[in-house]
Design a protein that fits this description.
Elements lengths: L5 E7 L6 E11 L2 E11 L2 H11 L5 H26 L8 E4 L2 E6 L3 E5 L2 H8 L3 E3 L3 H5 L9 H8 L6 E6 L2 E7 L9 E7 L2 H10 L19 H8 L19 H10 L3 H22 L5 E5 L6 H14 L4 E4 H4 L6 H14 L7 H4 L9 E3 L2
Parallel strand pairs: 1-4, 4-7, 8-11, 11-12
Antiparallel strand pairs: 1-2, 2-3, 5-6, 7-13, 8-9, 9-10
């Protein structure tokens, strides 16, 4: 799948709910990609609250309908800034990959995203690829994670095994034995990333939107007894493929944790929960002593980064931990780049799921194409 280079924009609004990412990527093939530009449109506190209400089921049908359009508007604003920043015309863009915002993820029954593609078609006159998870779920898959296709084709190492770890609202990893080897690669969600950390941080220090620079967790002490109970959750011991989200590790979970352990100790314990469950997942399901390359907001949390390094030493001595930025580009752009790749594959009629990651019955072309 080579030929004339294609410019594709990937959008991403993840479980961390911090904003809309937009990445402009030039593809010569599915294995040759160049990040041309990246822009992060941060959500205001009001917009973030609007998303949280929808995720927690507190919205009305009118709220959901309006949010369906507003998400596309926010994506459009990010795209306009990105195009201005890179001096690229919308008419030069082959497609826009718009996965929307996941509101309810319940495989193998449904995975539901909001975000109206027609708004972006009208605004930019480009093809818009959306609804990426539905065909995988219909094929018996989890509908997630979908980023592993990019991990295998773009970010794996040519000569040694590598784990691509993303610590967003949830944490997920992809094991890539060698770049391009789809059949031996697999991926799954390890559990919470920063979602629980930030939720209990807001309960402890309401003036903060999240545990910025680890300043709340730094004041707390880990409650080992409670942590042991939390890690006993069956999800952490379930074999992959598996996915999770805020349906399980969301506001209700955070409130229950805070009721049992209020204050900064809850935040410190949540940090350790994320670190140890990631390390446990690597030790349990990943062969050998791989290089772990991490991206996502959790990488910038100093206490979490330190705890993860220590936990990996305990659970899988010899595994190395590196930041995605050191090897590639700004790790904040990674998931938007991954969806740009998925959009590129769909435009070329190529499968975008990795059945060893999602559990689907086989490879599927993902999403639907709207527009000219």
């Amino acid at each position: 799948m080579t030929g004339r280079p294609s410019l594709v924009i990937g959008l991403m609004s993840g479980t961390s709910l911090d904003g809309m990412d937009a990445a402009l990527v030039r593809f010569r093939s599915a294995t040759e990609a160049e990040l041309v530009g990246f822009f992060h449109r941060r959500y205001t506190s009001e917009q973030r609250e609007e998303l949280l209400r929808a995720l927690e089921g507190e919205a009305t049908p009118r709220d959901y309908a309006r949010l369906h359009v507003r998400l596309a508007d926010w994506g459009g604003e990010a795209i306009e800034r990105l195009l201005a920043q890179t001096h690229v015309k919308a008419t030069d863009v082959a497609g826009i990959a718009f996965p929307g915002q996941t509101l309810w993820h319940e495989p193998p029954t449904v995975s539901w995203q909001l975000g109206e593609p027609a708004v972006l078609v009208e605004r930019f006159g480009a093809k818009v690829i959306s609804g990426f998870r539905a065909s995988d779920v219909a094929a018996g898959g989890q509908g997630a994670p979908l980023v592993p296709m990019a991990d295998v084709e773009l970010f794996g190492a040519a000569d040694h095994p590598r784990v691509l770890l993303n610590i967003g609202g949830m944490a997920n990893l992809t094991y890539v034995e060698r770049r391009g080897k789809e059949e031996s690669s697999f991926a799954f969600d390890t559990g919470p990333g920063v979602a629980i950390i930030d939720a209990v941080a807001r309960m402890t220090a309401p003036e903060l939107p999240y545990d910025r620079d680890g300043q709340v967790s730094a004041q707390g002490k880990v409650n080992e007894k409670l942590l042991t109970e939390l890690i006993a959750d069956p999800y952490f011991h379930q074999a992959p493929p598996k996915t999770t989200g805020r349906e399980k590790f969301g506001q209700d979970y955070a409130e229950q944790l805070f009721e049992r352990l209020p204050g900064a100790d809850a935040v410190a314990t949540a940090v350790e929960l994320t670190a140890r469950t990631i390390a446990h997942a690597v030790a349990t399901w990943v062969p050998g002593t791989p290089e772990v390359v991490a991206s996502g907001g959790g990488v910038r949390h100093p206490r979490l980064w330190s705890a993860l390094g220590k936990a990996l030493e305990v659970h899988r001595a010899g595994a190395t931990l590196r930041k995605f930025d050191e090897l590639f580009f700004d790790g904040d752009a990674k998931e938007a780049v991954a969806f740009a790749l998925l959009g590129y594959l769909t435009l070329h009629g190529q499968p975008g799921n990795l059945p060893t990651a999602t559990g689907a019955r086989g490879p599927r072309v993902l999403g639907a194409i709207s527009g000219p």
